[in-house]
Amino acid sequence: MSALLDNDEANSLLRRKIMGYIVSQAIFAVTRADVVEHLGDDALPVEVIAAKAGVDRDALTRFLRVLVAEGLFTEEPRGSFAVTGLGSLLREETPGSLRHLATLMDNEAYQAWSAAEHSLRTGEAGFDKVFGKPMFDWHGERPAEAAAFDRAQAGLVTLRMLPLHEWDWSGVGSVVDVGGGNGTLVDGLLARHPRLRGTVFDQPHVVGPTTTSGRREAIGGDFFERVPPGGDVYVLAQILHDWDDADATRILRRVAEAMTPGSRLLILEQVVPDGAEPHPAKLLDLHMLVLLGGRERTETHWRELLGGAGFEICRVTGSSRSSLIEARVAR
Ligand SMILES: C[S@@+](CC[C@H](N)C(=O)[O-])C[C@H]1O[C@@H](n2cnc3c(N)ncnc32)[C@H](O)[C@@H]1O
């Protein structure tokens, strides 16, 4: 006991973890105030940054002091601050930008975390307890919040779809992106593959009325009811992690019904490693629980889930940030 009392290292480590959300909130606040954008590439005096961003000078100095310690900014002589490479990832135009991730972890998602204990005790979404209904239903009634969510998801698609660029699209005539949001992923594929036709399928309030424009079609519907049939490739990008196994199986069965014998299913998710190491997928797994009652899955879990819905996995590729699970209907 006294050994622990005297252990400054253990005490500081746990303190930092307990107070970790202060760092997240500081990042959200400076992101909302566009501090990194206002700062540009050169060091600026804090009063100039404060004036450009419309924030309080003293408060900004204190927020930046925390974020200097976290490596997002440097403090230059005479009260000036500059953005580091890490901090520049909060800029939308930086390749690999995480600005949209900050948006997705902020706002209603952050509020849902106030019911984390409810999720722990029940295995259910904290979001529903805080907001009175599931997140996608809540978004259905709030166009502004839904549009912000769709924009933020779309902002991460460039990174998310990297494993799709390694995939062999030769001979593929059509792709259906199930739960494809505002169509950023399909647009990215159509731009790279001039003979490909693409369908974006999502909730009617997300895609709007059914439209066809050139090689791109947008269809509104419910993936628990029916998925547009006949595609050569079906994509499920960050969809199945929103749902528990029973609902994920229902979605997979609707996709299987829509597929032809030669169709392929490409799932973009993050696979949870089996080991004890820290991994973003382990954090995202809890986030999916609190937000939606969903989950991230290990490769073993993916094989069980897909097998139970009548699929077999052909291969798993990609990186630790975005894995591509290729599957087909089992013969
Ligand atoms: C986490 S977002 C992923 C969006 C996109 N695939 C991406 O990678 O950015 C989940 C998507 O599922 C859609 N969705 C939720 N419930 C749905 C339903 N019942 N039918 C069709 N789409 C649904 C949402 O509107 C949202 O666009």
UniProtKB/TrEMBL annotation:
Pfam families: Dimerisation, Methyltransf_2. Gene3D superfamilies: Vaccinia Virus protein VP39, Winged helix-like DNA-binding domain superfamily/Winged helix DNA-binding domain. The keyword Methyltransferase applies. Residues 19-90 form the O-methyltransferase dimerisation domain. It comes from the Bacteria. Residues 118-312 form the O-methyltransferase C-terminal domain. InterPro entries: COMT-like (IPR016461), COMT_C (IPR001077), COMT_dimerisation (IPR012967), SAM-dependent_MTases_sf (IPR029063), WH-like_DNA-bd_sf (IPR036388), WH_DNA-bd_sf (IPR036390). Transmembrane segments: none annotated. Keywords: Methyltransferase, S-adenosyl-L-methionine, Transferase. This is O-methyltransferase. It comes from Amycolatopsis roodepoortensis.
